[in-house]
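Supplementary Note 3. Input sequence used for the single-chain structure prediction.
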Amino acid sequence: MDTVKKVSVILILFGVGIIIAGWTVAENVSEQMNEKKKFTPEQVVVSFYGKWRSENEPLAEGFHTFKTDISENFKIFLSEFSGDFDPVACTDMFPSSYSLSTAMIEGDRASVGFMSASAKAVINLKNIDHRWLIDSIICGE
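The predicted structure, written as C-alpha cells, is reproduced below.
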C-alpha cells in the first residue's frame, strides 16, 4: 500500500508540473505576441525578409504557413503561387543585398518599398488586431 501512495504522489506532482510548464509557455507566447504588436511596418518587413532570406526553399518548405507577420490573404496567395520566381523578392533568387524604404502609413494601411539590383516591389501591410501584417507584395512597382 505504501508503494501505491508514493506512485500516486509522484503522478500528482508530475501532473502539477505539466500544468505549470504549460502555463509558463502560454505566458511566454503571450508576451512575444504583445511585443510584436509594437512592431512598426518597417520592423515587420525587416523581420520577415530576414527570415525568408535565411530559408533554402521557403515556398517549398511551407515557411509562410506558420508565419505570424503575414495576413491570411497573403498566406493563401503564397500557398497557391506557381510562378517560376520568388514572389517575395520578385526575382529568381533572393538578392545578396537589398534596401527598404521608410513606410508610408495611411490609416490601417502601410507600404514599404523593396529595391535590389534586379527587382523592385511594394510591400503592402495592413493593421489587423493592432498588429502590422504583410498583406501583399506587388512586384515591379
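The chain has two domains: 1-38, 39-139. The chain has a mean pLDDT of 85.
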